[in-house]
Design goal:
By secondary structure, this protein is mainly alpha-helical. The protein has 2 domains: 19-86, Helix Hairpins (Orthogonal Bundle); 98-204, minor pseudopilin epsh fold, CATH 3.55.40.20. It has 8 helices and 3 strands, in the order H-H-H-H-H-E-E-E-H-H-H. The protein has a 3-stranded antiparallel sheet with strand order 2-1-3. A hairpin with a 5-residue loop joins strand 1 (129-135) and strand 2 (141-147). Helix 1 (20-45) runs antiparallel to helix 3. The structure holds manganese (II) ion. Manganese (II) ion binds next to helix 1.
């Protein structure tokens, strides 16, 4: 049985970056639906006891094509949103310190350069999808973008996501309308770098 991530903050706590209605709808409707459907389809496939990462890594083992697509989309929606809601918070913003901060400077040159590059990916993703910061099996940082509810795991990259920016219109349209650029720019005010650092350490200790 899959359970959606429990929010550590209230729907209105991320204002003004994300308005309360967007948060409520995104969490209690969108993520709740992905979770419900994942549970249904995983049960149908007999994989409800597998972890979500394992499921997304081994989609190819699901022989029924429709069921495989349903699990790819809803399992991705479950994983992606659990990560998303866990790496933002009311005390977010600033820059990562510690080992992640060092690694970012080494990889991208500066925090600003990281921000520019991931923002560019978030903005050029055509239609729905995400921009990602992930850790490769060799412990390097890498940026990417994906469509729909795909992610670096379901695409078989072997990389471990540690941060994502949801650029589906449901993530920002009520407040930002067509101005995805403003949403992405403001998103950096709510990134909880201590949470991202936690995911980074976990990925590096694999
Ligand atoms: Mn979303």
């Amino acid at each position: 049985m899959f359970h959606q991530y429990e929010l550590k903050y209230g729907y209105g706590d991320l204002e003004p970056t994300i308005d309360a209605l967007t948060m409520e709808t995104h969490y209690s409707k969108h993520l709740a639906t992905y979770t419900k459907k994942l549970n249904e389809f995983a049960q149908k496939a007999g994989i409800e006891d597998m972890g979500i990462t394992k499921i997304l890594e081994s989609l190819y083992t699901i022989k029924d094509e429709k069921l495989r697509t349903d699990i790819r989309n809803n399992g991705g929606g479950f994983y992606n949103h659990n990560l998303y809601f866990s790496i933002i918070g009311p005390n977010g913003g600033g820059e990562p310190s510690g080992e992640l901060g060092e690694k970012m400077k080494e990889t991208f040159g500066s925090f600003q350069s990281f921000k520019d590059q991931i923002s560019e990916l978030a903005l050029c993703q055509f239609g729905s999808g995400y921009a990602w910061l992930s850790v490769t099996p060799k412990k390097e940082l890498v940026l990417s973008k994906t469509c729909n509810q795909d992610n670096p795991i379901s695409l078989g990259t072997g990389n471990t996501p540690i941060l994502n920016i949801d650029v589906w219109e449901h993530a920002y349209y009520l407040k930002y309308k067509n101005m995805r650029v403003d949403y992405v720019n403001n998103f950096f005010n709510i990134i909880d770098w201590s949470a991202v650092e936690g995911y980074y350490q976990k990925a590096c200790s694999k």
